[in-house]
Amino acid sequence: TTVFVSGATGFIALHVLDDLLKAGYKVIGSGRSQKKIDALLKKFNNNPNLSMEIVEDIAAPGAFDEAFQKRGKEINVVLHIASPVHFQTTDFEKDLLTPAVNGTKSILEAIKKYAADTVEKVVVTSSVAALVAPVDMSITNLVVNEESWNRDTWESCQATAVFAYAGSKKFAEKTAWDFLKENQSSVKFTLTTINPGFVFGPQLFADSLKDGINASSGIITKLVHSKVGGRFYNYSGPFIDVRDVSKAHLIAFENPECAGKRLLLCEDLFCCQQAVDVLNEEFPQLKGKITVGEPGSGSSFLKTNSCTFDNSITKNLLGFKFLDFRNCIVDTASQMLEVQNET
Ligand code: NDP
Q1: How many domains does the structure of the chain reveal?
Q2: What's the CA gap between 293 and 301, in Å, rounded?
Q3: Which residues pair with 305 in a beta bridge?
C-alpha cells in the first residue's frame, strides 16, 4: 500500500510519516521546495520506502496535478494534512481561507483526474475549529460532538485571524464532503476527517524547534520561556497529544468503520494555567524562574469558560487510550529544554 501525505514537513505530518514507515507502508510526501524535501529525506536516513514530490503552494489552482500525474497510479491512500496554520496576517482570504479550500479542492481533483482507480481512502486533517466557532467555545452548556459544525460564514469568520483560521478549516472540510457527494460516480475513495483539538507533544525531530516553531507548540514554548510574574493568555479548549493524532491518521484508513466518519480528537479540556502548573511541578530547573499565574485555578476556569466535547463515537472507533495532558506537557517541555541546553 502506498500513502500520499501532503504537507509532509509539518509538525503533525512528520509523526504520521514516521508511523507509516514503521508500519511498513510506502510513503510519498509533498513539500514546498527542493531544499525542504532534501532535508526531510536526510532526517529519515533516505529510507527507501519514502519519496517526495514538490507542491509549492496549495493555493494555486491545479497545485497537485503534476505530482499526481507522475505518481497517481501508485497511490492507494491520501492523507491531506497541508493547510496554513498561523495568525500573522490581515488578508484572511489570501493567506488562510483560499489556500485551505483550494488545497483540498485541488488534491481531490488530482485524484479524480489521475488516480480515480487506485485511491481507495482519503483522510483530510480538519480541526475542532470546523466543529465549533471560536466564540462558541466558551458557552458552558454547549455540547460539541462529531456532528457539530462551526456556524461562522465566509464573511463572519473574517473578523480576526483566529476566527478566519477556524473558518478555513470549516470550509476546507466542507469542500471535501461536498466533492465526494458530487463525484460519487467518478471516484472510488471513502472519506474520513480528523478533527483534533489543540495539538501538543514533542517534535519528531528536535531540530524542528530551531527552525521556527509550529503554532500550537509555540503556545508551550512561550510558557517555558515566561518570566516570573509574567502574564500569559489563558488559551483553553480540547487537547490531544500529537502522537495520538498521528495514530488516528493510520486507523482512519485502516479501519473500514471509519469511512464516512469525522474523528473528534480530544483527550480532555486544558488551559494554559494547567500547563504552567505542570511546568512548575515537574521541572525543578523552571521553578522560581517562570510565571506561576494562579496555581490550581485551571479547572474552575474551564468550568465557567468552556463548552463540553463528547467524542465517545470517536473513542469507540479508534479503540486506544489517549495520552494524558501532564505527560504530554512534560515530554513537550523536556525536549524544549534539551534543545535550549544544546545551544
Ligand atoms: P504545521 O504548520 O507544522 O504544518 C502545516 C503544513 O502545511 C506545513 O508542512 C506547511 O508547509 C504546509 N502548508 C501550509 N500552507 C501551505 C501552502 N500554501 N502550500 C503548501 N503547503 C502549505 O502545523 P500542524 O502540523 O500543526 O498542522 C497540520 C494540520 O493539522 C493542518 O491542517 C492544521 O490545520 C491541522 N490541525 C492542527 C492543530 C494543532 O493544534 N497543531 C489542531 C487542529 C488541526 P511549510 O511549513 O513549508 O509552510
Answers
A1: 1
A2: 12
A3: none
User: Are the C-beta atoms of 52 and 241 separated by less than 8 Å?
Assistant: no
Residue 202 Cβ contacting ligand 1 at under 6 Å? no
User: Which H or E run includes 98?
Assistant: helix 98-114
Read off the pLDDT of residues 2-28 as tens digits, 9 standing for 90 and up. Answer: 999 999 999 999 999 999 999 999 999
Q: Report if residue 39 sits inside a domain.
A: yes
Residue 324 DSSP class = P
For ligand 1, mutation pick of 5, 12, 54, 123 (most atoms within 8 Å of CB): 12
- DSSP category for residue 36: H
Nearest to 178 by CA among 85, 109, 251, 245: 109
Structural domain contains residue 107: yes
Structural domain of residue 169, as residue ranges?
2-201+239-267+309-322
Does residue 21 sit within a domain? yes
- In this structure, is residue 302 part of a structural domain? no
Q: Which atom of ligand 1 is nearest the CA belonging to 128?
A: 43
Residues linked to residue 237 through DSSP beta bridges, in sequence order: 270
**ipTM field:** 0.99
What are phi and psi for residue 264, nearest 5 degrees?
-90, 110
CATH number at residue 103: 3.40.50.720
| pLDDT value of residue 320 | 98
